[in-house]
Amino acid sequence: ENAGAVDIGDGLAAVFKIESHNHPSFIEPYQGAATGVGGILRDIFTMGARPIVNMNSLRFGNLDKAKNRYLLEGIVGGIAGYGNCMGIPTTGGEIYFEDCYDGNPLVNAFSLGIVKKDKIFLGTATGINNPVIYVGSRTGKDGIHGVTMASEEFSEEAQEKRPTVQVGDPFTEKLLLEACLELMKKDFIVGIQDMGGAGLTCSSCETAARAGNGIEIDIDLVPLREEGMEPYEIMLSESQERMLIIAKAGREKEVKEIFDKWDLEASVIGRVTGDGIMRVMKSGKVVAEIPAKALADEAPLYNRPSKRPDYQDELNTLDLEKIDEPENFNDIFFKILSSLNIANKAWVYEQYDHMVRINSVVLPGSDASVIRIIESGKALAMTLDGNGRYCFLDPFEGGKIAVAEAARNIACSGAKPLAITNCLNFGNPEKPEIMWQLSKCVEGMISACKAFEVPVISGNVSLYNETMGEGIYPTPVIGMVGIIEKSKPYCTQWFKDDGDLILLLGDSREELGGTEYLKTIHKMVKGVPPRCDLETEKNIQNACISGIENGIIKSAHDCSDGGIAI
Shortest CA distance to 43 belongs to which of 121, 135, 117, 132? Predict the structure, then answer.
């Protein structure tokens, strides 16, 4: 489905998901990032949920390079421009800088919405002869081959692919959101699907395949904003702010009236069939047909070769005896504080409106953001976490740590973990070494999810994140959501009162592999990341949550980047 949903009690469900828009954001940073936000929002309200919060996870190369500064400004501007115009707060996220992201920034967008759990809508084309209705913006030539572009490595000709990047209009999306939510209050439709990657092709095939039916599209009826578009272009266009609706037969007029009210297109372009075929018609003739399941569900399953990299042993070798102890720890402390990965990120998050809708309880800067649920009096805590450096040094341990740190941030807010979504950002899986990183990271994540007893309810995979043959660090990003029950306190990381006792939960060991200290001071990325004992981790987190609930703990902060000092 378009997103995952988890029960949060009181007849409500939280619908959330994270998705990548890495390749488009490198080619055209503002629109690439903006349409990433627009796409994830449609995934949420397609399910019948009203989006109430956005977050993002970003990776960039060294800011000494003008191109990376250009990407940073454009991507942050695109996220702010779209989210702010939609009137949805952006309350948190993460941002890291590493040389490996020079030619391939990562832009992962997260959104969460609330829906009555008996009012969740699915993307299914049920009911033979039910009308298929196109709603939203008209179709143009922007975004054609967008999915293909996102499945390739970049070369020197990357900028020639700018036409494959979609162009967003948040004001139209706002109208589309309100129109769809109004429609969903009526008994007029049986299915609804966002037109995302591959546009009409994917949305029609997916809805038909889920229902075990076929679908027939007459492209002469598709609203166009450009003349002379070929059937191929119409079916593959990724123009933004569009939806495919499967209405009940005889309800076409009522559906159109709602979209007319919101000044949006609504055109019947086809019907549901019972033959399992996705069929495209033009001028009364068949121009394309294929079994819907063949495209949606029956893609080839690859068992790609996997190989531990030859450089891994050398990479994991770190002799602490050869690391000189600093003469002046204050100087070291301030150098780490000023590193890009540790320094204050207010310049970024202050561009986002994090107070709109006035339900934001914990604002950007703490371990997790917290949003109030008006309908129940409860609150949701959410965080995005990932450490590509750890995963590069040890993919299995790095995958575990990504989940553990997300759970740690949720615990430090006073919430109990509910579920996760994930975005797996990797290089070219056709290379055995990259496939090894991917498989080991996933194995590590699985072990941690089992230990914390949290389901994975949605996610996204972004592969081929390479430019000129140079890949990114393996970067799984975990989006975790937790719940704070009614009348239970929440917690932030900041010290509260003079004289409060400061405690460290857990043990400290001689572990410097992959640390910010080693990278910033010694210019090294070596060793093995800190070991993560999942049973101990879970016990510490439970103790932290209990302490917050009982009023013993006033502030809590996880020890991660920069260690205890930071």
Answer: 121
